[in-house]
Amino acid sequence: MGQREWDTDAERDRKRAYREQKKQAAEAEQAEAEQRTRDRYGYSASETRTQAQRNAAAARMLGVKLTDDLDEEVYVRRELRETEAYSRSLREDDEQRAQRLKRSEAYLRWRWAGYHEGTIASL
Known about the structure:
The protein is mostly helical. 71% of the residues lie in helices and 0% in strands. It folds into two domains: 63 residues; 57 residues.
């Protein structure tokens, strides 16, 4: 019935205990990581939300969509379109626009990297 004939009760119990031990170790690691975040940023003892819950609440408050489905190139292209539109609204010449776009792209890539390192709060 799904178990091999030679799997004894003791072996099944040993495997079950091993899986449970791995699960507890993963949960403990996640709890330690959460505590490091709390200690680093000075969260009070009454703050019981996890990092994911805090991020979701911040996104809700700011009215932004979480960027898990966004990659760097899509982000940079999208923002450069906005920068170019702004540049055109200022009636900048081609040289000024090219310089603005070059600076903007460098900034956007820096911001993307910082966001994914956790040093920048939002994109």
